[in-house]
Amino acid sequence: MHRLALAAVALALAAGPARAQLDPEPKAPYLWRVVVKAAPHPLLTPAFRDQLRRDLAAALQPALGPLGAVEVIDLADLPRDRWEALWQQFDDKGFPAVEASRDLTGAKTHFLTLDYRDGRYHLAARQHDGFSGLASPVVRSQTVRAPELVGRTAGLMLDRDFGLAGTAEPVPGSKDEVRVTVRGGQLGPLDKVVKAGDVFAVSQVFKTNRPAPPPVRTATGKIVAPPPGSVPPPGLTAAPRPFTLLRVTGVGRDGVLRCTALSRFETALPTADKKVVGYRCLRLGTVESPVAVRLVTTDPAYQKSVGLVSVRASEAGFGPADAKDVFDFKDGVFRSPRPLANVACVTVSHGPTRSALFPLPVLGPDPVALPFEIDPKAEVEAEYTRRVLAASARVADARVAQTICFEATARLVERQKNADALARAKGGFEAADATDKNLSDDLARLRELPSPSPNATRLVEHVEGQLAALRKVNEQLAAHVKTLTEVVRRENDPTVAAVELQAHNLTTRITFLLGRGDVDEALVAYEQLIQVLPTDADVKARRDRLKADWAPKGPAHAAAREYLLRTWPGLPPAELEDSLKRVEAEVEVCLKAGDRYGLRKLLTVFSGALAKLSEYVAALDPAADAKAIASANKAGQALAALETRIAEFVAKE
Fold this sequence. Notes:
The protein is α+β, with helices and mostly antiparallel strands. It is about 45% helix and about 20% strand. Strand 1, helix 2 (about 45-65) and strand 2 (about 70-75) form a beta-alpha-beta unit.
């Protein structure tokens, strides 16, 4: 019987889904990078930050033990051209940057911000795990008064969110059982870093058509060079598997965890999707706490039907209803009558037939928004729309970051800090290029799904248009990188005369300024260039042609430019739809006047307007603000179409 049982197990394993494309890396050590960004303040001196770096390493390395190495990096100690793309995006955008999908590198990056105000040291931290592609779900924050406690407080805060990562595989023949091979799980005992009851978030991993980035570093900090002639493996990217958690039921000595899958889907880890090459997971810093839920719906009738909606939850699973598990409802929020440990298996019901399951990690008492549609068909469209809007927000953020990069680069060129300008431009190009690649992957996956409505299709087309605009601007940035590379080369060439170098710097600055439509500043630079090259008639001729091109072609043209470049950017997002007719009319005036520089300047305004509109929509309540959301989406689509038309006109000039 024993041999027969073993044979049955072997057959079951052989029949199970193969996930050999994902290396679980059971002997790979973690590289836990803590990246510190300190706000300028007299008390946050280099000596203070150096002590913080030592305190963090001393606090975190013993806790990590043989599983890997801790590396603490102060951004102030490195020039920007040595920053990774993720660090640059964090510097520009803050903690939301860790949520964006990106190619997997294997490095765990924990960002820590430090500020001093109101007599206290303010700390905040959040991580991105480069093995699973997941971010820790909350921003941890602490304040302390005593400077000697900053390092210890920060160490405890970061240690709480260090998450083991692993590769998850469904156990053949079992609906809910999952086997997790812990990354680095064979390097040392796991009993201090994971236990039964702990909860893991799940990501689905996709293969890209790009080569994998080289390993960041080994655990000892050394750069790993690939063998000569080797071909890099395909790159991997990941996306969260929504409302799917793994709860640990047993910890093996071989670095393998036994887990139970909790999911709102019938199959927690489906294997039929050929695009998905496997699943990875990240341990979360869960707690025991009361749970609060706010339901989000696109149906305004939800408010009238709230009496028919009930919410209940248990940490045991999605079992039959129990009176002690039913949430109380007050002020639009459902709250649990008792604390729940680590996980809340939430069931939302509307009437006797409509219900939805939501496994939630318990992270604290703050309300969690859950999407719940009374109409099941509306739920499909709402989920699709949420994914598209998330992509729209990411591309809007990336375009704003591009604008910031151009402005920062131009300021550095103006101050003749060309090496710094080159580093800033390179970093901006790489960050936008990474966003482009990952968003293109996401949109391709969305395109493979059936669109639930014509409006959803238009939203996808809008995001694709914005991504094309991002790509076009990045081509300009690449050209600036090439120009600045030549400028820096000339600066370092002792044979180049000072006058020639100064003239070349001013010419480069003029090119930057005209690329953004900053004509007034370019004319000032031309006057400086004429002083350097007083006998160069061509320089004076170019200046005069620019003055003539920039001069308004009449009162109507001057009024149109004033409205588009000064008045319209200051309008609140709620008024953008009402302003569309005038914006379109004033753009027509500028097109007829051949105002290439004014319209080029307007393009830099558009990215900010679209980002502001995206933030406005994200803050609205889909139930109460349905009309405002529809208005904002209409404005965004119209502005995107107008932007495309302007860009085509400018490109022809």
